[in-house]
Each structure stands twice: as C-alpha cells, then as structure tokens.
Specification:
By secondary structure, the chain is an alpha/beta fold. The chain has 14 helices and 13 strands. α7 links the parallel β7 and β8.
C-alpha cells in the first residue's frame, strides 16, 4: 500500500506539542475588551478616526483591491503620493511601496545583491553580511539572493568590519534598526562606518524605528544621521506605527529605479490595496501634526520596563517600543501569556524557533495612547501572573 505522503506532518506536530511549541490561531473580536500590548500599533493610529475615514474613502474611490501588479494596473495616484510623502518624511530621495514589509525586505536584499561580478577569469559572488538577530524576512532575503552570506554576532560592528575586509568585490550589510525580539537597537553609525571602509552598502530594516525614533518619529536611520546617504537603503513597514498595512523601500533614486525593474516581489505581486495606502497617508499626516506621539511611546516602554525590573523580573532595556521579559521555559511563557489574557491583558509570547537564542519571552509592545493608569495596571498584571523562576 502506498505511503501517506503527509504522515510526517503528524509526527512533526507531536514533536512540537511535546516541546510546547505548537502555535494556534486566535481570532480576535472587533471590540475586544483586552488591553493590547501584543500588537504593533505603537502610535495608536489603527483606530484613529482620520485614518479609518481615509482608508474608507480610498476604498470607495479606487475599489477594494489594486486590481493588478504595480507595473500593470496596480499603481494609483495614491501610491505615488505615499511614496513621495514617505521619502520626504524620512529624509530619502525616493521610495517604493510594496504589499508588505516582508516583501519589501525580500526585494531589497535580493535586488541589491545583483549578479556575480566578473573578476579575472571567474565571477566574484557578492557578499551579504547579516546580523544574527535579524528578522526572518531579511534572513529569507539572504537565502534567496544567491550570494555568499556571512552571519555575524549580534550588533557587532567590528565583526561586520572584519568580515567585509576579508572579501573582495561587491558587498551588502543588512540589519534591523531595532530588533523585534528584544527591542534593542543596532549601532547604525558604527555599521555605516565599517561599510564605508570597504565600499559596501548598508541596508537597514527600520520597521520598529519608524514612528518611534528620530525627530518626530522619522526613524532610526534618520536619528543616526544616515537618511539620504548615497550608500544607505532603508525598509519600513506601514503596519506598525502607521497603523495600516504594507511596506516600502527608501533610498537613492537609482536604487528605487533598479528595484522597479529587478525586484520580483514588486514585479509579480499585486499592488497594495488602496485602503491601506490611504490609511498610511493619513497616519503620516497625524504624525506630522502630533510628533509628541513618538516620545510618548518611548516613555511608555521605559516605564513598563522600570516597573517590571524594579519588581525583580528580567527584561531587556527598551531602545524603542518593544519590552522583552524573560520566561523560564516555553511552557511557562505560554501559561504566563494565557494568564495575562484571562486578566484582561494581551501580550506577545515568543518561543523557539522565533527566538534564535532559545530563550522564551513575553513581548510587550508599548503604545502612545496608553494612559498612566493603564501602564500601572498592565505592569501589575504581568507581575501578578509571573511564573516562579
């Protein structure tokens, strides 16, 4: 009798179940009573009346979908406006909008590696130097780039410098600006210096920096003084601080022009839905008018961290909006998150393989619209439900 081709899936499920690593979907209601410290709505704009109305108006005017790829029918006047606004706000020459931040990262890494260079009698393969803590989208971009990839220790600019120095030919260093697991920031200025010593480009995923860091929330790259530099490219997501959906690549005009012709996740993917574009544009308008939201979300993160560590929990000092709290085990992290939810607080739960160091965590994401009372109650809930060490 022929073997069932999917028997291995059941065995894999049992293995993950025994290790406490099974993931499940939990649909949330539209009017959830939980205080949300699990999502990435850092500035509290997802439900802002202006953002909702702009998204609805875009859908009414342009339709529910983009109708095709950006190079066919999927580009609207709204897309062009958003690209101009993002580039201007973040300090770059040009921008290109994608259907997700994941797609933007895949595009940037693969297209910017380029083909092998002719060097003597044999081609020289481009090098990608990737931080060990990078997001999965950057990791997958490295895998798809068909380049030589060197993974260096986390946030180690000297390791990047040494790796670039041992390579001849074209090279690209890639890093998160703020790492999504622990919320710590990359040493962007030192990384840029290391890249420039060896003629390498720097690609920064600023998903967790936009709206939180820099002047008025212009991002970590802007804060480091690197925005608009000829050898620096940034990616951002529209689904965190801007409360919408989608992603973008920001950089020199010639880089953006190259992506239009070479980035497969741009050429072959349907364009971002007009409602998401309209919502992101409205969020940018609100952020320009209310730049204090960026400072407020940083304060909330710092205050959560202060209260939790003062009570004895181990948490990484937040450089932006993410507060990472260590858990004793994957099972304990799952129970802890469930107990928080029962008490009215939604928190993230990160376990292997999402965390490369194998240490499970609760992940709290600060929001600019939290009141001081909500901050106090949220910290109290995490402390009351904490498992024994």
């Amino acid at each position: 009798m022929p073997q069932d081709p999917f028997d291995w899936i059941d065995a894999e499920h049992e293995r993950r179940l025994a290790a406490g690593l099974v993931r499940t979907l939990r649909p949330r209601p539209a009017d959830s009573p939980l205080v949300d410290l699990a999502g990435n709505d850092y500035l509290g704009l997802t439900r802002h009346p202006e953002v909702i109305e702009a998204a609805a108006d875009a859908a009414r005017r342009w339709g529910a979908g983009a109708t095709g790829s950006r190079l066919v029918t999927g580009t609207t006047a709204l897309h062009a406006r958003l690209e101009e606004s993002l580039a201007e706000f973040c300090g770059f020459e040009a921008a290109l909008v994608f259907s997700s931040g994941y797609a933007a990262n895949l595009a940037a890494v693969t297209a910017l590696c380029g083909p092998p260079q002719l060097s003597g009698k044999s081609p020289s393969v481009p090098l990608v130097v990737s931080d060990a803590g990078n997001h999965a989208s950057l990791i997958d971009g490295c895998r798809l780039a068909r380049a030589e990839t060197a993974v260096v220790p986390h946030a180690d600019a000297e390791a990047v410098r040494k790796t670039l120095g041992a390579h001849e030919g074209r090279a690209l260093a890639v890093t998160d600006s703020v790492f999504s697991v622990d919320g710590d920031a990359a040493p962007l200025a030192a990384l840029a210096e290391a890249c420039r010593e060896h003629g390498a480009a720097l690609l920064v995923d600023d998903a967790h920096g936009l709206g939180v860091l820099g002047e008025g929330g212009r991002g970590a790259v802007h804060a480091a003084g690197l925005a608009g530099d000829a050898d620096v490219v940034a990616t951002v997501t529209l689904s965190k601080s801007l409360g919408s959906q989608g992603g973008a690549v920001l950089g020199p005009a010639r880089v953006i022009r190259h992506l239009v012709s070479h980035a497969r996740t741009f050429i072959f993917d349907t364009g971002l839905a007009p409602a998401a574009v309209g919502g992101a544009l409205a969020s940018l308008t609100v952020l320009r008018r209310e730049p204090g939201r960026a400072a407020r979300v940083r304060y909330v993160a710092t205050e959560l961290h202060r209260r939790l560590t003062a009570a004895g929990l181990t948490a990484v000092r937040p450089d932006a909006a993410v507060v990472s709290v260590r858990a004793p085990s994957p099972e304990a992290a799952v129970r802890w998150a469930a107990d928080c939810r029962t008490a009215g607080l939604a928190v993230g739960c990160f376990r292997p393989p999402s965390v490369p160091d194998g240490v499970s965590r609760l992940r709290l994401t600060a929001r600019a619209d939290l009141t001081d009372r909500q901050i106090e109650e949220a910290a109290g809930t995490v402390l009351r439900t904490a498992p024994a060490a």
